[in-house]
Design goal:
TCAIM; 2 domains; DUF4460
Amino acid sequence: MTSRAVSFQEIAVALRPFYFAVHPDRFAQNPHIRKQNEKSLQVFNGYLSDLFPVSKTIRPADIRFSISNDEKNGFEDIEITLSGTDPVRIVNYLRSNKRKPLKNDLGALLRSSRSDAIRKSKEAEITRMALKNDIDDIKWRTGLHDVVWQIDWEESHMKRCLGNLNRLLDQATPESRLGVIHALYKNILRFGRGSFVCCDGSIQLGADNVPEQWEQPT
């Protein structure tokens, strides 16, 4: 980054690797480091803010951060002296070779984040496929027109609801089972809060209810 008129937003973008490495949330298992980094970040951000525009009351400050260091299998302290009114100089200082642990730490973080995102994406796809199979199965079994999830819980909870409905059908008497199938045939089944018959004739079963409550008259 060259010394020219830069905005606060440009400085913030340039400092992303630094913020990633020292962010307090990364040290939740170490309260001392978390608290130290939190206080130092407040001072650091306050100093940067005073440069846009430059405050007449700005004063030099010494701060300390701890970062993860895989090579040392632990943490490493870094001390920073904030001085002057050139934000570009501060950025270049933090991105210099002296701050290699920050660069390595960021690379590890990005690789970890990417792997985690890929894993979660695959898990979500498996969950969606399994859920679609469960929905198709209950449609085939009851003649349902559609199944709708109308609650702000994760759709993974829908799998449990469908499983409960299958068990209800399995354990019901032949007469009760026929009654349930008759009510659901060519109808829309909704899972939401509470169990009742909707104004349009569709049936809602409470995702927050137990199957016994579904059988109670509304």
